[in-house]
Design a protein that fits this description.
Number of strands: 21
CATH class: Mainly Beta
Strand content: 35-45%
CATH architecture: 5 Propeller
Radius of gyration: 18 Å
Number of domains: 1
Number of helices: 3
CATH topology: Tachylectin-2, Chain A
Helix content: under 10%
Oligomer: single chain
Largest sheet: 9 strands, mixed
Distance between the termini: 8 Å
Length: 327
């Protein structure tokens, strides 16, 4: 359904750069003064995730800034800063990311006035405990994406994996969660086993466009696909439409073979696996295939989607809104 950029991938790991020598993936994107600012997850030789920044004039050719923008500084993020989402509100950039302490993943927040110097605001939900957390600890909370404007006088964010929940705030720092999910997995669909929040919600004349990820099974050869939904402009907890088919699924070789994070043994196992062995597993359909989107920009009636391909490289695809809504 999406039109892939012919020269994909647009960013790949580089052995010359210690912070992203192994993996680049799951970018968020924002356009500021005709410059694209991409913040992406990079993994280097130490197998620690950091969030790096890259800039571009054309949205395709990116120059990576050498020093990470967000990196582990506290115990609650000691093993990695992952998968950012960025929003611009009240003359300030708000960047949410997943903070991993080695055991539990939690959503964290940082902000900046200039996209250079970042102030961390710690965990978004310091004491979260939701009841419907199948196969995950109750305090586990990932993939927070803040709406770019208030809804009904409140700031809103969607977050979560397994289900997508909502939270509201008066100040963007202190958040009150709703224990009832907004979006759930659906039986007999591409997202029947698991869903996870995607990029910052996009405002359209039909409602807020929510992009998310879904998988149909928990087996080792699972496939991550990209789905879409619309929620009400005034009441984001109200779903008014949801796609019946994925809008993007792995198809190309660069989306089907790579250093996928959910391999048994995690990063420790990945660090010992050769590229040839990875390719062999992929050909035997013994690896998850993933497209994972944290960043999207609306330009007229077109959505530019920046996504991670097989947790190893960054790609670009475009789609018009009419095509999405027909899915």
């Amino acid at each position: 359904m999406l039109k892939r950029y012919p020269q994909n991938p647009i960013l790949v790991p580089s052995s010359k750069h210690k912070y992203y020598s192994k993996k680049v993936y799951n970018p968020t994107i924002i356009l500021d003064n005709d410059t694209y600012h991409m913040f992406f997850r990079g993994v280097g030789n130490d197998w620690i995730s950091r969030i790096l920044q890259a800039t571009s004039i054309d949205g395709v050719n990116f120059k990576v800034i050498e020093h990470p923008a967000i990196y582990p500084e506290h115990t609650w993020e000691a093993k990695g800063c992952e998968d950012p989402r960025i929003t611009y509100i009240n003359n300030r950039y708000w960047l949410s990311y997943t903070a991993f302490d080695g055991i539990t993943a939690r959503s964290a927040l940082a902000s900046s006035t200039n996209l250079v110097t970042w102030q961390k605001h710690s965990l978004i939900f310091p004491h979260l405990s939701h009841p419907r957390r199948e196969q995950l600890p109750s305090e586990w909370h990932k993939s927070a994406a803040i709406f770019p404007e208030k809804c009904n006088g409140k700031y809103t964010l969607f977050f979560g994996d397994n289900h997508i929940w909502s939270a509201i705030s008066d100040d963007l720092i202190n958040w009150q969660t709703n224990p009832t999910p907004v979006i759930n997995p659906r039986k007999a669909f591409f997202d029947s086993a698991y869903i996870e929040m995607g990029p910052t919600p996009i405002k359209t004349n039909k409602g807020w466009l929510i992009l998310y990820h879904g998988i149909d099974k928990f087996s080792q050869d699972r496939t991550y696909r990209l789905g879409a939904a619309l929620v009400s402009l005034d009441n984001p907890s109200k779903v008014i439409w949801r796609c019946s088919k994925p809008i993007l699924e792995p198809r190309e070789d660069y989306e089907s073979s790579g250093l996928v994070d959910i391999l048994p043994g995690g990063f420790e196992a990945l660090s010992k696996i050769s590229t040839d062995y990875i390719d062999e597993l992929a050909k035997k359909h013994q690896l998850p295939r993933t497209v994972f989107c944290c960043g999207a920009i609306k330009m007229g009636e077109t959505i530019k989607i920046y996504y991670g391909a097989c947790d190893t490289r960054i790609c670009l695809a475009t789609v018009d809104l009419a095509t999405i809504f027909a899915s």
